[in-house]
């Protein structure tokens, strides 16, 4: 059903997407003049009302922005809510109807490329130097391309056009494997130092039930239906650590690694674990975040692989609620696998629809957001309400639910779109802020989790080439995720047949075409 809906959305987009501007030739030497309308619409993620959140597009923070932007830029802003978890469909529909906000953002670069190919996105290249000097300074150098600036990460090297600019991730840690330290202590087991020791610990959890939850309830390794993410570090352990950057880019198709050397072997190991009862047997049916969180909080799960700070985050209260149910329970991060990833420095991609009547205002506002006097207040808020000072460093406070100054996203990342994370001017200060930002969790616990995540990890391979084969992106991702789950839950004797048939189907469904294009775009040296 999901594929049918996706196909209908893509068909609708292809057949009805009418944009006010066709793709232009290469940018002229002088930037075209943009009319100043004094009006602007801006996308903002709507995360619902759970946890005490206020209206995404109408709260004290948006009011503060509106008043200050009116004073500083003489621009009237209207925020347009877009579902955080339905953003791809919502933005596609808004673009198709010609009603998308003047300033948009998304984590899906492939979707931006699709809009670009249909002439739906403004070329920003002529305006970076004149409109975005503060953003250029904030983003700084591109760590993946020495000598280049991050603001032009998405430039098309063939045409010089820029259809999106990235936001900046202050912290680039991605995932950690966490294990129940209290269970290890109960069994007098050491903290695992490698993959085999983790495997042995999970078998001991299964056989000895250190949490006294009942052997039929023990979940040695917890994962939900997103096994591609929740088992990623374990699967990637079997990929070639010496793989070239070219192969890492070429074989990463639709943001999936299933075609990379060693990935099949990693999934096969997970198939072994599953059939030995080490992985939650009904993980494909666990489709809601709450079900996964509640299972962990109940005390039956021995290990997980999730976001690097997963147990400590205040918005999910994993460790806090677990300890209410199991006094003394503890999750600690462990470093037991190869091929660990850190996030690429860019996060969100920010773009302006080509049919926007307020391009001048969109560019000015984007640069306004990059000024420290504006984004710092949005990130740390009011002293005594959103933060308190600890040795000169702001510590985030848990603002009461429904409080007028409640932050709907951590440090208002949905509003401070040029950066994700607290940016206070130096890596040292930023790290101290991070360590103080997790409620009652000691700062050293957060620091340890961060260091564990980034140790011996590397960022994704990137290449400044513009792909044209984008129509398969969503379907290939879904097919890859389905194949991973199907192969893990298969009988061991059926694994090769299931995997190989799935890969052939995936390649026929567009994977081969994307692979061929990427191979051509990244020349062999």
Give me a quick take on this structure.
By secondary structure, this protein is an alpha/beta fold. It is built from 20 helices and twelve strands. The two termini are 44 Å apart.
Structure overview:
This protein starts with a helix and ends with a helix. The protein contains 20 helices and twelve strands. A hairpin with a 2-residue loop joins strand 10 (387-390) and strand 11. Helix 17 (427-435) crosses helix 18 (443-454). The strands form four sheets. It has a four-stranded mixed β-sheet with strand order 3-9-4-12. It is globular and about 70 Å long. The chain is of the alpha/beta class and 525 residues long. The chain is 40% helix and 12% strand.
Topology of helices and strands:
Blueprint: H1 2-16, E1 39-46, H2 60-73, E2 76-83, H3 87-96, E3 104-106, H4 109-117, H5 128-131, H6 133-139, E4 165-169, E5 175-180, H7 181-186, H8 195-208, E6 219-222, H9 227-230, H10 232-236, H11 245-250, H12 263-275, H13 289-297, E7 301-307, H14 318-325, E8 331-334, E9 346-351, H15 359-369, H16 372-380, E10 387-390, E11 393-396, E12 419-420, H17 427-435, H18 443-454, H19 473-488, H20 495-521
Parallel strand pairs: 1-2, 4-12, 6-7
Antiparallel strand pairs: 3-9, 4-9, 5-7, 5-8, 10-11
């Amino acid at each position: 059903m999901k594929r049918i809906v996706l196909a209908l959305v893509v068909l609708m987009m292809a057949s009805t997407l009418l944009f006010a501007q066709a793709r232009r030739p290469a940018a002229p030497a002088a930037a075209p003049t943009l009319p100043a309308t004094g009006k602007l619409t801006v996308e903002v993620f709507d995360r619902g009302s759970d946890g005490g959140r206020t209206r995404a597009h109408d709260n004290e923070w948006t009011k503060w922005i509106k008043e200050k932007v009116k004073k500083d830029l003489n621009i009237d802003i209207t925020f347009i809510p877009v579902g955080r978890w339905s953003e791809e469909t919502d933005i596609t529909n808004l673009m198709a109807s010609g009603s998308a906000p003047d300033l948009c953002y998304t984590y899906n670069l492939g979707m931006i490329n699709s809009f670009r190919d249909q002439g739906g996105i403004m070329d920003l290249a002529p305006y970076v130097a004149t409109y975005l000097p503060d953003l250029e300074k904030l983003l700084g150098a591109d760590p993946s391309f020495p000598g280049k600036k991050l603001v032009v990460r998405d430039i098309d090297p063939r045409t010089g056009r820029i259809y999106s600019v990235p936001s900046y991730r202050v912290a680039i840690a991605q995932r950690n494997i966490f294990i129940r330290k209290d269970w290890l202590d109960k069994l007098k087991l050491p903290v695992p130092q490698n993959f085999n020791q983790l495997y042995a610990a999970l078998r001991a959890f299964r056989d000895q039930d250190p949490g006294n939850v009942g052997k039929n309830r023990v979940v040695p390794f917890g994962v939900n239906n997103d096994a591609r993410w929740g088992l990623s570090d374990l699967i990637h352990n079997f990929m070639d650590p010496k793989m070239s950057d070219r192969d890492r880019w070429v074989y990463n198709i639709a943001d999936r690694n299933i075609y990379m050397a060693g990935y099949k072997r990693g999934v096969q190991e997970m198939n072994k674990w599953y059939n030995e009862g080490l992985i939650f047997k009904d993980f494909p049916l666990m489709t809601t975040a709450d079900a996964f969180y509640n299972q962990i909080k109940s005390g039956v799960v021995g290990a997980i692989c999730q976001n690097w700070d997963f147990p400590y985050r205040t918005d999910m209260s994993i460790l806090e609620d677990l300890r209410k149910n199991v006094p003394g329970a503890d999750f600690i991060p462990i470093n037991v696998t190869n091929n660990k990833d850190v996030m690429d420095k860019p996060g969100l991609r920010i773009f302006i629809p080509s049919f926007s009547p307020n391009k001048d205002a969109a560019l000015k506002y984007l640069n306004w957001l990059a000024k420290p006097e504006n984004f710092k207040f949005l990130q740390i808020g009011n002293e005594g309400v959103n933060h308190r000072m600890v040795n000169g460093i702001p510590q985030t406070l848990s603002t009461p639910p429904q409080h007028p100054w409640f932050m709907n996203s951590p440090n208002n990342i949905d509003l401070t779109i040029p950066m994700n994370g607290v940016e206070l001017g130096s890596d040292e200060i930023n790290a101290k802020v991070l360590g103080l930002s997790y409620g009652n969790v000691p700062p050293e616990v957060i620091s340890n989790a961060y260091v564990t995540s980034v140790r011996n990890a590397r960022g994704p391979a990137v290449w400044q080439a513009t792909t044209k084969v984008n129509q398969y992106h969503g379907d290939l991702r879904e097919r890859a995720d389905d194949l991973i789950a199907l192969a893990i839950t298969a009988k061991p004797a059926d694994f090769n047949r299931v995997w190989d048939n799935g890969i052939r189907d995936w390649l026929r469904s567009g994977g081969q075409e994307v692979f061929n294009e990427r191979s051509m775009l990244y020349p062999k040296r």
